[in-house]
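Hi U.,

Before I forget, here's the chain from the pilot set. I'm dumping it here mostly so it's searchable later in email.
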Amino acid sequence: MLLKFFTKKKIIIELPISIYQSFGFSKIKTNSYSLKNERCGIVVGTRIDYEKINITHLIEDKTPLLQNPFQVLRVTSHIYPELIRLIENNGNIDYLGEWHTHPNGPICASWIDHSTMKEMVNNLEFGDLKWVILMIFLPDQKIVSYYYENNNYSKIECNLI
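Structure:
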């Protein structure tokens, strides 16, 4: 089945600026002379209602399986224990999706990004997720976000609060 772009109600992600700054995302600059490795991890928080998702934590995989300026491959076992600890200590939060950087481009999700996220939805191996989000942190303080549900996806807004 093909992955289709769809438009539903407007969904907004709210990301505290303190989290954004603590990961150094605001310092990613366009610079053709210095290729930076991509970074990756998971998004944790809560869905307030259909239209609003609040991010409470980003967890980074500090030792990904593969990492270079144009790709990164995360290993779940590296950060799963931290996710469980956060959920146990903070109550009403849960896994919401994935994040990674594109310090050298492109300015959107790749077909690999889309197919990976699609695979996670409604797949019992990933915990029977009904939806997930993908956040891509780009140079010059830009964030591109997507919402995946069933075999559909939509680009969504991310606000720093």
